[in-house]
Amino acid sequence: MYHYPVPGSAAGTAAATKGILMSGIINTIVSLLVAVFVTGGVSNIAQETPREAVNEFFTGLTEGDPQVYELYMDNSYINLLANSGMSDEDASRMHSALFEDFQWEITDSAERENIAVCKVTLTNSDFSRVLESYEKDSHDYVMDNLYEDKVTDKDQLAAACLDIYLDCLEAASDKYESVESEIFIPLESDGFSGWRVIPDDTIMKAAAGGLVLPAEK
Q1: Contact 41, 127 (CB under 8 A)
Q2: Dist. CA 118–CA 5, nearest whole Å
Q3: How many helices (H) and strands (E) does the chain have?
Q4: Alpha carbon 181 to chain centroid distance?
Q5: Which CB contacts under 8 angstroms, 24+ apart, belong to 93-100?
Q6: Inter-residue contact 117 to 29 (CB < 8 Å)
Q7: How far apart are the C-alpha atoms of 162 and 170, rounded to whole Å?
Q8: How much of the chain exceeds pLDDT 70, in percent?
Q9: pLDDT grade, residue 215 (50/70/90)?
Q10: What's the distance, Cα to Cα, between the start and end of the chain in Å?
Q11: Which of 75, 107, 117, 125 has a CA positioned 20 to 30 A from the CA of residue 134?
Q12: pLDDT of 24 above 70
């Protein structure tokens, strides 16, 4: 039988602190939720519980679910995956590199009326140095082929740079140790259709192993 912590005991104090922490986190995301409602950035994927909604979101992300991509298109990272203009083969390379080692674990959750938050531990390869590697390798490529068609022809150059970027992603997936991050994911419910994740770039950057998008530089 489960015994609830005695108030005033060490276990009771820890439990109370945990409850206060999660309640405080819910308070901090209220303003974020209001902003998302105003901009229309909330998706239409709905689940019965906040935990189910988080699992559905990350499952769809790792499996390349087109519905997830479409519903979260205003997120910079998902937009990159969905609108990269790549061939199917290149898109598969990017997706495989980014999510082959991705894992998540929901460690806590809290609800208050139509607002919820899930505490999630994310693990992925360390992609934080990919953009730096790409910029160096692409610069070297241009300088080595400065007067050749592979550089002066824009289409050939674009194809070569994409290949360099994918090489950097795949190299990072194999070369660097995994990174782990703990994040809090806000959710909302309209009271009828279930819970919906509200992703932002902070959540997606953590899921993508710290990958820095070009616009962030």
Answers
A1: no
A2: 23
A3: 9, 4
A4: 11
A5: 93/166, 93/169, 93/170, 94/166, 94/169, 95/64, 97/125, 97/166, 97/169, 97/170, 97/172, 97/173, 98/124, 98/127, 98/169, 98/173, 98/208, 98/209, 98/211, 99/61, 99/62, 99/124, 100/125, 100/173
A6: yes
A7: 12
A8: 76
A9: low
A10: 54
A11: 75
A12: no
d(CA 102, CA 62): 8
> What pLDDT does residue 191 have?
78
Q: Count of alpha carbons within 13 Å of 118, Cβ hemisphere only?
A: 25
Q: Determine the pLDDT at residue 10.
A: 46
Q: Which amino acid, 164?
A: I
List, for residues 182-214, the tens digit of each pLDDT value: 999 999 997 777 888 988 888 999 999 999 876
| Cα 204 from Cα 168, distance rounded (Å) | 19
Q: How far apart are CA 142 and CA 156, in angstroms?
A: 11
pLDDT tens column, 51-101: 999 999 999 999 888 888 887 888 888 887 777 678 889 888 988 999 999
Position 96, amino acid: S
Token readout for 8 is: 């005033």
Least confidently predicted of 21-30, 69-78, 142-151: 21-30
Encoding tokens for residue 157? 């150059």
What is the distance, to the nearest Å, from the Cα of residue 187 to the centroid of all Cα atoms in its chain?
15
List of residues 6+ apart from 117 with CB closer than 8 A: 22, 25, 26, 29, 50, 109, 110, 184, 185, 186, 187
Q: Is the pLDDT of residue 122 over 90?
A: yes
Tokens 């999630």 correspond to 120
